[in-house]
Amino acid sequence: MPVAAQVQRHALERPHQPALCGPGGSLTYAELWREVLARPLPVKGKGLVAITLSDPVDQLVAVLAADLAGATPLLCDGDQRARVAATLPVDLHVDTPLPATGAAGGTAEITPGITVEPDGDDLVWACLTSGSTGSPRAVVRTRRSWAGSFPHVSALAGIGADDVVLVPGPLVSSLYGFAAVHALAAGATVVVPGRWSPGSLTVQLRRATVVHLVPHRLPAVLDVLEEVGGPLRTAMVGGAALPPHAREMAARAGVRVVSYYGATEMSFVAADADGTGLRPFPEVEIQVRDGEVWARSPWLAEGYVAGAKGPMKTDGAGWMSVGDLAEPYEPGRPLRLRGRGDGAIQTGGATVVPEDVEAVLRDVPGVRDIVVIGSPHPQLGSVVTAVLEGSPPPRAALEAVARGRLDAAQRPRRWYAVGDLPRTPTGKPARGLVAARLAGGDPQIRRLV
């Protein structure tokens, strides 16, 4: 069933239930559905619709309009617009709120119903990941892989129509985008500030019963909850490992933590609902082959738009991997992750592939060679760190290129230089050795200021 159809059903059954609460105001389910009907896409049929809007409520109205039209929505940031348009086969770009062609927000009938015949193989959701040479790479999902997991997520987190779900981050993130759309499908009230706003938590937590967020944000939520109280009972947490003692801190506050592991390409792979370790998500099979995690499930993505290259690999038998590492796995035992085999950097819930950043910065005149690694960070997990060989260009020049060609999560936050990069026997820069020398305070590696 399209998500738009579920929103319509909520509008019929509980028209006055608040649906969306954003920075600019709120909409009930009846008002939300009328907005969707009154602001249709100017084209019908299957295709990729890039949505570059700043207000999260406008974003979700456009997402539902795309779903109603049978198109594939792709949320992106304003600074990604030009690269998306130049790289991906976008059929329509929505960068201003869809114009109203009917009685939006008025007393128009909640019907008519869904006009698109849904199919489980329809492509209904796309999400950007960082692409090579700074080009956007979009993962696309079928209706079955996208919305089919909703009932399992609702059961794990206990999310229902009476909940208020706080989604405290940008919807262009696959985690936050999924969280908002899932909560709408469940008929809950969804609070979408559009970005992380610590100053707003005091108000938000007075009503939120569930929060869906990345791990490094959880301690701040629990700190505010301790000060102001509130009905929060569940934290749905994904994107990276939990901070130390976060689950114990949550338990003291009366908050149940449901953590999960997955990837944009693989969706949900495993979940930990009680602190005993990651177990396969419903309908997921897990194998660890030569130290790499492989999964087979109905939730796997269809692939990358336009045949882009990325870490996703399949074996022809329905199994997929993105190179994450784990200890040997036995069914019935917890899955114990060890990180990314390709050196990918987990920073603030986003995954950055170092080679993608290196490919962009190697093009800067004066750059001889470069290695990108992750450096530990107490809140973000890691930050992207660049180590350049020889006498590189000024940091300001490097940062200007990074701002113009890399997404925000990909841009290095720390910059260093070294006379000669250590290399493997084949002549490639030895990424692991660079990281070890930097962590050990090698005096030959100097910071760029």
From TrEMBL:
It comes from the Bacteria. This is Class I adenylate-forming enzyme family protein. InterPro entries: AMP-bd_C (IPR025110), AMP-bd_C_sf (IPR045851), AMP-dep_synth/lig_dom (IPR000873), ANL_N_sf (IPR042099). CDD domains: AFD_class_I. The keyword Ligase applies. Residues 357-428 form the AMP-binding enzyme C-terminal domain. It comes from Nonomuraea mangrovi. Keywords: Ligase. It holds the Pfam family AMP-binding_C. PANTHER family: ACYL-COA SYNTHETASE, MEDIUM-CHAIN ACYL-COA LIGASE ACSF2, MITOCHONDRIAL. Belongs to the ATP-dependent AMP-binding enzyme family. Residues 111-304 form the AMP-dependent synthetase/ligase domain.
